[in-house]
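Q: what does this look like with heme C bound?
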Amino acid sequence: MSSHVSAPKIQHNYLCTICLISAITLALIGCGDEGTLSMNGDIETEVDIFTKREWAVIQRLSPLPEVPPPSPTNRFADNPDAALLGQKFFFDERFSIDATVSCATCHSPFYGFADVEATSLGVDRGTRNAPTLLNVAYNQWHFWDGRADSLWAQALIALEGEKEQAGTRLQYTHLIKNLYRKDYEVVFGPLPNLVNTDRFPPNGKPGDPQFDNMSEADKIAVNTVFANIGKAIEAYERLLISRNAPFDQYVAGDMNAISIEAKRGLKLFIGKGFCILCHDTPSFTDNEFHNLGVPQGKFPEDTGRYDGIKQLLDSPFNGGGIYSDDPDVPQRILNFLEPTQQHQGQFKTPTLRNVALTAPYFHTGEFPTLRSIIEFNNAGGVPNGFVGMREGTLEPLELNEQEVQDLVAFLLTLTGELSSEHLLREPELP
Ligand code: HEC
Ligand code: HEC
């Protein structure tokens, strides 16, 4: 095993997908030096299954680094007190228009922090499937369309989203004052003086006269509290890490950690199935957006990344804005972004870690099982019912029945362990 011990690094390769894809293609095709893999010499099957080159590709998928990449736009991202507070916010249904919906309503700890329903029911029914929050801090973009570039900004969209929690930032700011003042101030410093309800009405967000008529300085004060709510939630989400899946144990040297079917599935994953073209890092996503031609089914047309870029650029809470704790680098990334026709119907490559826990699948939630996804890929997609142009590389895979089953068996080996029990439970709320 000595020749393959180096730990792969998580790659945020949004600017370099092309070089990466060519590197992988080279690795897949191989240029000389094929040779078969000899593990410690005691497991015959591995020698038959993977070449050295394939094993090198596999090692780029494991382990998942112990800590997610830093989040410089949130200086509270790794503050334990902020995380504890964020966990309370996450489970507290009072953070919604009628005190009935919390983040956990749709991201249930019992279902891998995803939703068993195809599309989620918050205050109203949405049109997209709720992704898992396990390992979410390893992602560069958030939402299927990437309209948030940080976890804290993502949370703010859910808190005010009409189909999600549908409350307002003024409501939440008063909630903090009434219920969470002490805990909040320990982490973030003094709240603004909210006593005067002419200056700080009990309810309102941009678009509502109560908010729009406030002074600029008071709006910024409220937005800052609102952003801090998101920053606390991010600190909690950063702890939702799930590593050491059977697949990782296998790559680390436990040859019996996964079945022979799963090993064959892994070979297809990095080879004939071309899955590795997009699911190519330890969190099994290239942090990019693609149009697979997933049919919209009964849902309205969804332009995906195209609208996502517009909303991201328009948001005062993006990483380049005044509520960001480190705007320079994010602003440079935002400067590159511009919605074009090519972005129509593109959706984010989701992580595949814990995918066995998070059915149903795809952005529409209309694919009930892992098998249904593989069959979709195997057929090279379906001819119609989607927005924009399907990516040119998607061809029928010609996998036989056994190969379809093997790929499913591999995906089932990606279910990891959660770091601590206490993160799954609703904490005591004030
Ligand atoms: C009504 C159900 C619902 C509620 C409530 C809800 N979410 Fe979500 N969440 C979703 C759906 C659906 C998506 C995908 C929507 C999209 O991509 O447009 C999503 C996406 C996300 C994502 C992006 C994940 C990814 O991989 O892109 C994060 C992070 C997240 N939610 C966290 C939260 C937090 C934190 C809260 C509470 C402040 C919350 N959600 C409240 C349903 C919900
Ligand atoms: C061209 C890039 C690309 C390739 C190749 C690719 N995927 Fe994906 N995968 C995606 C994207 C993008 C999505 C989300 C699509 C959507 O919802 O519109 C996705 C979604 C999925 C999902 C659903 C996950 C969820 O949480 O909803 C699974 C499972 C999956 N892919 C497995 C595979 C397997 C197995 C292969 C190889 C047979 C593969 N993918 C090949 C990009 C790719």
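The longest strand covers residues 242-243. The chain has 15 helices and four strands.
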